[in-house]
Write a structure and sequence with these properties.
With 80 residues, the protein is of the alpha+beta class. It has one domain (2-74): Beta-grasp domain (Ubiquitin-like (UB roll)). Helices cover 19% and strands 30% of the residues. The protein has helices spanning 10-16, 35-42; strands spanning 2-8, 25-29, 51-54, 57-59, 70-74. A 5-stranded mixed sheet has the order 2-1-5-3-4. The longest helix is centred in the middle third of the chain and has 8 residues, at 35-42. It is globular.
């Protein structure tokens, strides 16, 4: 098992986090899990994740996570 910190931004924070005011939340995953596995655990569809950062570096849905990683998920910004 591995533990990663997930940080959700913008609307994702309000829609999916159990504690929206938190700076991050620890998630536990099986060794070898990917960003997609993390999103699935939170019920976040891949299309909702506009940008994914792992340890402050751009990542893909297929990026394999390691113990201690920090994953930031940013939604598509809206407005006008």
């Amino acid at each position: 098992m591995i533990r990663v910190t997930i940080k959700l931004s913008g609307l994702l924070r309000n829609q999916y986090k159990s504690t929206p005011s938190a700076k991050g939340e620890e998630a536990q995953l099986k060794t070898g899990s990917t960003v997609t596995d993390l999103l699935t655990q939170y019920g976040i569809g891949p299309k909702k994740a506009h940008m994914i950062m792992v340890n402050r570096q751009k990542a893909e849905l297929t990026t394999t996570l390691r113990d201690g990683d920090e994953v930031s998920i940013l939604p598509l910004a809206g407005g006008g």
